[in-house]
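seq:
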Amino acid sequence: MSELGAAKAELALTLQSAGLDVYSYIPARVTPPVIVIRSGSPYIQPASVGQEYLINLELQVIAGTADNESSSDDLDDLIEAALNALPADAGLKTVSSPYALVANGNDYLAATIGLDLQITI
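struct:
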């Protein structure tokens, strides 16, 4: 497995150990509540001289259907759980405002957490 793949898999395991449902890839179907780890942009940046790099990742946090009154609270709870479960070496960049995500023919309430991880290639 590549260092990039290993970093995503390790992040997924860390979040899963906190009881979160996480995919380290974009699944064909999502069943909320779930977190999907996606590549950010730019995907890779040099962190220093040598083989050290920052990989930019996005955690797409997906709560229940967008028309459910409790989805907003559920999304906030899921964001907080994800932030609390991040490893110490993850650099938090941003948390987006909630948005409607269309998946599986449904509208879900979602937000995106931007972060970076340092790796050696």
